[in-house]
Every structure is written in structure tokens, then in C-alpha cells.
Design goal:
Layout lengths: L1 E6 L11 H6 L6 H4 L9 E4 L1 H5 L8 H8 L18 E4 L17 E4 L5 E7 L2 H9 L2 H23 L3 E4 L5 E17 L5 E15 L4 E2 L4 H5 L1 H18 L4 E7 L5 E9 L4 H6 L2 H11 L4 H7 L9 H13 L7 H5 L11 H8 L8 H11 L5 H13 L2 E3 L21 E3 L1 H16 L10 H15 L5 H13 L3 E6 L5 H14 L3 E6 L2 H11 L3 E3 H9 L9 E5 L7 H14 L2 E6 L12 H9 L2 E3 L8 H9 L20 H17 L3 E4 L2 H14 L7 E5 L2 H17 L4 E11 L2 E9 L2 E4 L13 E10 L2 E8 L8 E6 L6 E3 L3 E2 H4 L4 E7 L7 H8 L2 E10 H8 L32
Parallel strand pairs: 14-18, 14-19, 15-16, 15-17, 17-18, 20-31, 21-29, 21-30, 30-31
Antiparallel strand pairs: 1-5, 2-7, 3-4, 5-8, 6-7, 7-8, 8-9, 10-11, 12-13, 22-23, 24-25, 24-28, 25-26, 26-27
Length: about 900
Amino acid sequence: MITIQALTARGNNARGDAVLDYLLDTERLTAYYLGEAGMEEQTLRWRGKGAAALGLDGEPTREQMQQLARGFAPDDTALCRNAGVEAQRTVKRDRNGEVVLDANGKPVEQWRGGHRVGFDLTCSAPKSVSVLMALAEVEERGRIVAAHRRAVDATLAFVEGLVETRRGKGGRDVLPVEGLVVTACDHLANRNADPQLHTHCLAYGVALGADGQWATFDPIEMFEHQHAADAIYKAHLAQGLRELGYGLAQFVVCDLDGQDSGVRTWEVAGIEEATIRHFSSRDAEIRAAMAQGLSHHDAWRTTRKHKDEPSPAEMFAHWQGLLAQMDQVVDVAALKALGDTHAPPRSDDEILHRLHAHEAIVEDKDLLVAVSQARAGAGPEQLAADVARLKAAMCEIAPPPIAVADRGDHLARRHTRSRWSARWMVDWEQEVQQRADARRDELAQRVPVALVDAVIADYQAEKGFVLSGEQRAAVRHLCCESGGHAVLAGVAGAGKTTVADLYKRAFEANGQRLVGACVSTHAAQKLEAESGIASLSLAMLLKRIELGRVVLDDRCVVVLDEAGMVHTEQVRQLMRHVDAAGSRLLCSGDLRQLQPVGPGSGMALLAQRLGQAELTEVRRQKRVEDRDLAMLFYDRDASGRVILGADTDPKSRAQAQAKSQQIWQQLKAGNKIDAWDTRQQAMDALALDWFDSAYGIDNRLVLVHTHEDGQAIAQRLRSGLRDRGLIEGEEFKVKGRQGERALDLVLARGDRVRITENAPALGLTNGDLAEVVAIRANDGGHDLRLRVQARGEREAFSVAVRTQDFNHFNQGYADTIHKSQGQGQPAVFHYVNPQQTDNQAMLVAFTRMTHHYRLYGAEQDLEVARMKLGLDRMKQSAILQAKGRDDPRWDQGPDLPI
């Protein structure tokens, strides 16, 4: 496994760990522990071509490492512009300018700014390799460690070949890095003194460019290729172990239902699962803490010991003593006599389908990871051959487009590398657009203009207000001017419900009936309650059409709400049914908000072909300044009009940075940002503000990017609610579930849970919020009585749940941003995750509130997020970015079965 963490100017990661000090204090390994084979390299050593360019050789010294951490060469030469800039200690102030005090009444101080030390890239061997190292005698142990080190070196070479540095005004020229400066440091154990072979690679925040100049570097490729680097490490390690004579056992990773997930893992043949579990006490501690309601992140930190390792002699003696008492083969010759074992193989087509589960276009790194997961244990040459074979059968897609303003003399590699898409993915996209073209000019479904005008006049008289020009134009476009398919795009909070009410009245006045479809049942119920359109989840509608339980005809109008979240294949399936019946399809949504979970965007394909009606006036936020800030998340064309389509020219780096800065400044001016030194402090602050909020609990929305962050914040809120007597009684460790994620929850009376899957027999809908009114253990699970909140016209009700039969629920205190689209609450408390931050996610998070919004995070996380507020992460379609229509693998797509 490979992890990458950015380090602050003080050498700490976002958890607050002093990584630089930890590496400097590492005990050196000697031939006594690793034999001659393990002494070809030192425990602490220089790596990277940049180190060689600086003449660094031998064991790194404290002085050399501290100089490089400050941005200087060991001879005091500055290697970057901000070399030597120190972090400054400041006093934390709240939104009103008052000094923030800690639990002891002392001012909270924070470190800000300074030259970033660098990045900690850690390569950890599979547990069976660490156990093998523990049981082997000295010389063999050294050979195992040497194989790990060679795999680490191959990984560093891979990463070093990806990293780039910028030159020129605005960083337009992007140059390859000639070399990084890295200190590699080996460790044999984890913090519980279990065998855990791993190497920390501290890449200092400076690099030698291809032009011979030193500067800082752009780490984006390092982070984006993290999983690919892990594949490289494991492939080289597997090769090294085979060269030593060991076999590898391949295993199937099953999902929560016991089905083959398509992923394979490997361990050293002959190392028993029971042995691996025994030497995984660190993992067991973390999971036990998570069962108490902590997130993985908090559990990791809470259970963590100071890493004062016993001496290597003590550790090896202890490990071998334990192994002697286990039912584990410890004879190396006997282990080497075992050959490879293989799980059922995955075909190339199965790999491609899993690869395209979320994206229509993939890159080389994605192919490498997919092949590595399906063919775990394969060596680097085999992985390369498999990737090449898959690419030969795919369609080649142009590199990501780049703005003209960013086209310097040298382009970033990502703008020169081809991308790829499966043949069948391209066929799906072509079919969607061909269907759109085929029915573009149909007249049969159109409503007479006079009838639409009469409906609008009656509506205005009834409601006592006049429609805006764009609302009127949208209704006419959908009812009178479009053919068999139409698209309505609207900014977040633009009042698409009003337009839906109008076109519903118009179609019904024309003798047509409407059927609604949404991504989720929850959203469908909301659409039906707000518009009166009988609605189902899209999956349920498709299923019922196929079963003949819903029958479409030529007087039917299907409304696909939040269509920007629906992937290409689902839109294609719906269009087939709609077109076969001669019905009409209206897609309503916002392509600039959250993207589909699946591959591609059907709405984007339709809008690119047919155009769209647009609503650009924000109506949800109550304050003018909040509405203005919401609109900053959208791009505008030269005339100042909001851009709602996906088929636009790419923003330049300067434009994206300017947009990010503009949004950030407005958030900061509105006191909507709360920065802390650590993530724990930020979560604590969010919880305190949540309890201090003037709004009722049901009007407070906590938003997170990951389930792990949601669990961590939920634990803090639960603690406060128990202190206030709102949660009471005995606590139970309960297994919950969200999709393919198993959840360790702690529940008691008064807890809130969110239902995560439909259960019609229980009356439960995915997204329901419920309170635990009673809970007790039963034989192998738990009995719960839930009080489910009212929704729309449905009244609150109670239901009994047995967790052995139904455990699809999560904590009910924090929602992911993806779950929140379509919601709106007076107060929003948003915890940042820099890896998941982009313009679309931030737009949705901010526009969920009507009155109050605040963003919380560690300073360095917020700094990364700040630069990404203008970064789009839109779902892309292969046919809109094809590389060369003269490619023989491109054709006109399948014949339409109309």
C-alpha cells in the first residue's frame, strides 16, 4: 500500500505528526539483523536524481535534511524562491474577531505559511511479506528487505518521471522534473510492534527541472498517480519474491453480499490467514475504536502509541517466539516449495466494464490500476503487456483540452497523453445523439402556443406574480418548440419547480399525462410532492416498464429530474422506451452541479445536440450577497451570460485561479471559513457551532465529502447530544451498511439514523431520517424500533427492524454532498476534504443553505481546497473528445432499433 501526505513548513502532516523528526530519530539496521544481503543499502539513504545532482551520498545527516526541509542545498544555496521562509505563529480568532480560547481558557495559537517541507510517500508491504520477514533467518530476511527496497526504488522512479515544475509568467511552461531529492527510511514494525515492513520516502519540496534550474514542483501528478504507483510497487515486489523462490496466493475480494467484486489480492503462499490476523493488532485496535463510533481517521489517532520501537533484536525474538506457538510453517524451504495459486481469472471484457463503472474516458494510470486489481501478483512486464492489449481494443481519445492562454513552449504531460474508451461506451453515446437527431423536429407532442399562453396567464393571476422572461421562454421551449426530447438547465436554486408546475399544467391541458423519474426514490417523492407529477426512481421506472407495469404511449411525457446526475447508459435505456412508445422526454437539471456516479452524462449529450432552455436567476438564498456568491461558482461568456452547458472551451490556469480566488475572498469576507491547525480541531469547532446554532436540529445540515469524515463528526455530535440528555441508555455496537460499505455504528435511544436502501415491505425509503426509540441485542444482531420522520404528505410512523434482515442504515448526523443535491436547509456546516473538492461539489454544498453557511478544515487542507474552487470536474463523453474521426475503430454506431 502507498500513502502520500503533504507536510507543512514545520514538517507535520495534517494529523499533526512530526514526520521529519520521526525519520531523523530512526534506529539504523545493521548486518546483525539483515545479514550482508540487507546491507547493500543503508536504513536511511538518499534517493532521487536530484540528490545525485547535489552530490549527496552516504547516510543523510540531520543538518542536510534540515537544510533541504527549509528549501536550501546543504551548501546554503537557495533552491526555490521561498527558501527559508518560516511558519508564523498566530492567534486564532472567531468570526467576530474575538480570540478563541481552548478548554483551559488559553488563546488558541496556529502556525501559518512558510516553505513546505515536502511530501511523505510511504510504501508498505503486504502483511504476509512482513510475517515472512519476521520468521526468516538473518540472510534470507535481508534478501526479503532488499526485494522490498528494489520495489520502492522502482516506485520512486515512476513518480519521479511524472512530477513537473512550472516556468514563465503564470506557470505557462511546464517542464519535466530531472530529479527529486528524497530521503528513504526503512522501518520493520508498526506502532504496536507488529511486523510491518515499510519505507518512508520524504520528497523535499524542491526539484531540478529539465532546464537545469531548481524550484518547487507541482505535486498534482504524484497524487493523481498514487494508486498507479501502488500497482507498480506491488508488481515489482511480487517479481522480487518470485525471484527468491516464493509462490504467491491470489485471493478473490468479495462484496458484502459474498459476490466476486472483480478485485484480486495476493499474499505469500503458505502464510496462514490466522497468522496475518494475529500480527494485525494495529488494524484490530483501529476497528475496535471505530466500533465505538470513531472514524478511521480518529480511531487511528486515538489508538496510536508513540513510536518508540523495541530494538530489532527484541522484536525478532518476540515475533519468532510467537510464531513457534502458532500453526504456521516457519521453514523457509517448505514455504518455497509451494507454488502460485490463482483465483478465477477476470476476462479483458470484465476488466473494461469495471474500469468504466464511473468514467466514460480513462487514462493509462486507470488501466494500470484496473489490470493490477484483476491480475494481482503479476509482474511489471505482464501488467504492461495486459495494458497494451486492452488499449489496442479501445478507442483512442484526445488528451484533455488546454486553454490557448496556457499553451506555452512546453505542455504538461497530461495534455499530451492519449486517453481511452471502450468500443461499447462509444456506441452508447452515439446512440443517444442519433436518437436526439431522429426526433428533433417532431410536431405531434407539441402544445399549441395559445394554450400555453393561457396557462401562463391563469397561473400568474392565481399566484399573484409575473413570470420572468427566462421562465416564460423555458415553458414555451419545452412545450411548443422542441421535438421528442428537450432539455431544461437551471442554476442551483433557480426555481425549476415553478417551471415544472407550469409545463405540467400545459401538457395536462393538452390531454397529455406526465411521469416523473429521479436518481433516487427520495428525490422522486420530493418531485411528486412539489410538482404533483407521479414519480419513481429511474431504476424503478425502467424496471416497471420492462415488466409491463408502467406503459408509455404517445400521450405520455416523461420528466427526468436532476438529469445532470444521470449517466449515459441510463439515459440511453430510457430513450429506447420513450422512443418506442412515441412518448416525449424532458431532461431537467444542472450540468454544473454534482456529476453522475456512472460513466458519462446523457443530459450533456442531448444538450450538445438539441440545445437547452436555461434558468439563470438564483431564488433559494435569502440574502443578496449569498445569491451573488452562489453565481460566482458559474462561468460566464463574453456577454456576461451564465454558461450552463458542458460543451465549452476549457478555462485557462489563470482563469481557474482567479475564479478560485474570487470565490475564496467572498467566503472569507462573509466569515464563512474556519481554519485550524489540525483536522481534529476543525471537526471539534464544527460540532460546537452546530450545538450553538439558533436553528432547530432538523434545520441544520452537516455536509462532508467522505463517509469517514461523516462518522468522525457524527461521533462528536453524539457525544454532545448524550451530554444534553438527548441520547440515553445503553450503547450497542451495530453493523450498518451503505451500498458496498460496511459500517461500524454505536447506537442508543435517541440516536438518528439515515436509511440507505429502499425497503418497501417496511415502508422505508432510501434517504429517510429516523430516530432510534428502542434498541436491544438479539441472538446475532439487534432489534430496533425506529420513528421515521414525516416526508411530504406521508406522516411519521414507527417500524420494527431486525438487523439480521435489514441493516441498510448509517448515522443520521452528516450527509455526503452527493446525497444532499436537491435539499435545502437554513444552516449548513461543511467540512472540507481537499481531494474531493472541486467547483461542482463546492457549488452544491454552498447552495444547500438558505441563511447560514460555514466551511471548516485544517489550514493545509483549506489551502489545497482554495486552489480548486475554480476547477471543474465534469463527466466527459468520449464522442465529444475523440482523437481523429479517421480512426478505423470509429464508425457511425449501431443501427437504431426504432
